[in-house]
Amino acid sequence: MKKAGSSLERLHSGISGLDTLLRGGPVRNRLYLVIGAPGTGKTLLGAQFLRTGLDNDEDVLFVHGEESRGALVTNAAELDIDLTDAGFLDIGPESEFFTQSRSYDVVDPQDVEEEHLITDIREAIEQQDPDRVLIDPISQFQYIEPSEYQFRKRIIAFTRFLKDRETTVFATKTPGAKMDEQLRSLSDGVIALGSGAEGRRISVPKHRGVGQQDGSHGLTIQRGGLTVYPALQPESYGRMFNPTQFPSGVDGLDTLLDGGLEQGTVTIISGPSGVGKSTTATEFLHTVATNGEVALAYLFEESLETFTHRSETFGIPITQLRDDSSLIVDAIDPQTLSPEEFAHRVKTHVEEEAAKLVVIDGIEGYKAAIKGGEGTINLRQRLHALTRYLTNMNVTVILIDERHAVTGLPQPTGSNVSYLADNLLFQQYIELEGELQRVVGTLKKRVSGFETTPRRYRITGDGIAVGDPVTDVRGVLEGIPKPRNDTTPRSR
Q: How is the chain split into domains, by residue range?
């Protein structure tokens, strides 16, 4: 028997992100219940737990009752998880234990099966002395117990036996079956797997004496097994605010913004379709990338090819900047990522590339493209957490938001997300003397001054050209301005 160690000694689960939810990983000598409907990844999670033990030169035992050893090894190998060196104990109804002939003339058959099942498991554990055990599923214990009282006694005795041997156990179970609450109560930790419109999900409702990261989190199954994407917790990344400005490189626009956008702030550029929001954001991407910093752009409403062609038409060398690794452009395929997986992608880019500017184009596309949509997950709340993380990392953020009104400014943004913004930059059309013109203005700038008068601008072959302030007319925000000396009452 192995020498007992610290009661809070941690193990690596082998599942990327799960140890974060478990506040450092599973604790040695404890029982963890992995619960979820069929197909949610319970067995795979357990297989990764065992494989990690093998990688650490530990002895592991796979106690299985529904699939054969050959099927389990083959299924794991399909995802590049090698279990050939693991110990296996088959306690299923078609195993030798259940199919061998027995006589039940004197005793109850259940008593004999119970005695032999527990004996087989104890002997396998004593012989192999494993560090990690996976019981898949633990329901096999339930089938031989006549009552909840007996089942509880059996599990308590079994877990004490394992803890005395310094063994950590993961046990799988389908929810809703008999004695479900008993198992949850007896387990030291509960890991819940699920799936729905928002994709695969994982949560840890219980981790006795240690705590856990609460809430629902993203989960994927791919080569190598499960990957967990914990929801961002921005407060863990706080840094000092840096007032350094990033200019756009467009003279009139930078004058309007009192020099540019401050590092570590969130700017929302709002306006109707086609008014030039993406082009304006690209000016900032260009300036940051050409000044020796790294800029990131996430496209939800435009392909990489279209973005590249349009930007290079205005003289912005997207291909060259990408080749120089000063600009990273990531076009997101619809319904492929959970909000946590997208946030993880952004976080990885920011931390590995030391990026200073992130553009998300745009908010409506984000809500439509991320798995689940606004109906099943509060994506605005997740977007808020992402922007908080970025600003705490002193990253400047630009969010592009589409308003549905072609003229006028009935509300600051079209997605009711103005609370996210430190800076609000609006672009809109106005009708003046029978001509449709564009104006840009600032509604809010939290950490510096700004011009309160909008400016006309044009989109030219060289990009955005911003003119002088609009001082000769009034009613610009209503979309149909009039000369200042025109006293004709506006129609209602």
A: 18-230, 235-483
The secondary structure of 218-261 as a DSSP string is: EEEEETTEEEEEPPP-GGGG-------EE--S-HHHHHHTTTSE
Whether residue 237 has pLDDT greater than 60? no
Mind listing the pLDDT tens digit for each residue in 189-213? 999 999 877 789 999 999 998 999 9
- The answer to whether the beta carbons of residues 218 and 338 sit under 8 Å apart is yes
**Fold equal for 18-230 and 235-483:** yes
Tell me: domain 235-483, CATH 3.40.50.300, correct?
yes
Q: What is the DSSP string of 191-208?
A: EEEEEETTEEEEEEEEET
C-alpha angle 361-363-367 in degrees, rounded to nearest 5? 120
| Mean pLDDT, residues 283-301 | 96
- Is the model's pLDDT at 111 over the cut of 80? no
Element (H, E) at 43: helix 42-55
Contact 270, 424 (CB under 8 A): yes
What is this structure's pTM? 0.82
* Strand pairing class (261-262; 357-361): unpaired
One DSSP character per residue, 357-421 reads EEEEE-HHHHHHHSTTHHHHS-HHHHHHHHHHHHHHTT-EEEEEEE-S-SBS-SSS-SSS-GGG-
How many Å is the Cα radius of gyration of the chain? 30
**Residue 476: DSSP 8-state:** G
- CB of 356 closer than 8 Å to CB of 295: yes
Whether residue 70 contacts residue 63, with contact meaning beta carbons closer than 8 Å, is answered with: no
Query: For position 487, what pLDDT does the model report?
Result: 61
**Which element (helix H / strand E) includes 270?**
strand 266-271
CATH of 18-230, one of 3.40.190.10, 3.90.550.10, 3.30.300.30, 3.40.50.300: 3.40.50.300
HSE value, Cβ hemisphere, 13 Å, CA-based, for 109: 6
pLDDT band of residue 219 (cuts 50, 70, 90) is very high
Return all residues near 40 (Cβ < 8 A) that are at least 6 apart.
Answer: 193, 194, 195, 200
Type of residue numbered 252: G
The terminus-to-terminus CA distance of the chain in angstroms comes to: 87
